[in-house]
Design goal:
alpha+beta
């Protein structure tokens, strides 16, 4: 569920009395499948749908796939955009997650920084309908523009939906992931400390913390280290 506002709103918009009521929009999508990592194409099932809660309540269901048309339900691309045949050449795939549309311009798209949300009124995978702000002249207008719009994300919330067993497994997997991440971080910190002390002892890092060890070397034989030939 995303709460966003018009990215291009300005003080001039206040000339319309209804504009103040439509500065924010609440919209979202239902993901019916597990998110897949390192995916450079669409996935998921037709159980996905898009919705808007504010300023208008609407649900945009998925459309049946017809040949190569449609079927673009879920999209997730989190890696640095590179060309697989030439890593030094960047591709133009959208970097983030989305629903519908194309891999370069999803119908509902959230960028990888979770700052902006781009929406379009139609594509071949979901029913036609406006997900952004309605035209300012008519708050309750059902008219949809053919152009896409960019919204600035104010808040983003994720809800787990399912029966009790599904929710339990989800939380268990989340806790396990956090435990592994915490253990990895603790291990990295321990290794860093050990390496740091080792570098100090070996003189890689200049410090007098272990200088006394060299000075007392040889005292048992009645001389300081470095004075053997004196």
């Amino acid at each position: 569920v995303i709460q966003a506002r018009n990215n291009s709103s300005s003080p001039d918009d206040n000339r319309n009395s209804n504009k103040n009521k439509t500065e924010t929009v609440t919209l979202g999508a239902y993901a019916a499948s597990k998110w897949e990592k390192k995916k450079r194409d669409f996935f998921g099932s037709s159980d996905c749908f898009l919705f808007q809660l504010q300023p208008t309540l609407r649900v945009l269901k998925s459309l049946p796939k017809m040949g190569t048309r449609g079927g673009h339900y879920m999209y997730f691309h989190s890696n640095t955009n590179t060309n697989t045949s030439n890593p030094s050449r960047k591709d133009d795939l959208a970097l983030g997650l989305g629903f519908g549309g194309t891999v370069r311009s999803p119908r509902l798209f959230i960028d990888s920084r979770l700052e902006e949300c781009k929406v379009s009124p139609q594509d071949t995978s979901f029913e036609e309908g406006n997900l952004g702000l309605p035209p300012p002249d008519d708050l309750f207008s059902s008219h949809t523009s053919s152009s896409s719009s960019t919204l600035r994300i104010d808040s983003l919330e994720i809800y787990a939906v399912g029966d009790e067993e599904t929710i339990r497994r989800g939380f268990k997997a989340q806790y396990q992931h956090r435990d592994i991440a915490d253990a990895t971080l603790r291990n990295a910190r321990t290794v860093d400390k050990a390496a740091f002390l080792g570098d100090m002892r070996n003189g890689v890092i200049e410090s007098k913390a272990f200088a006394h060890r060299g000075q007392v070397d040889g005292r048992a034989h009645g001389c300081m280290k470095g004075e053997e030939d004196v």
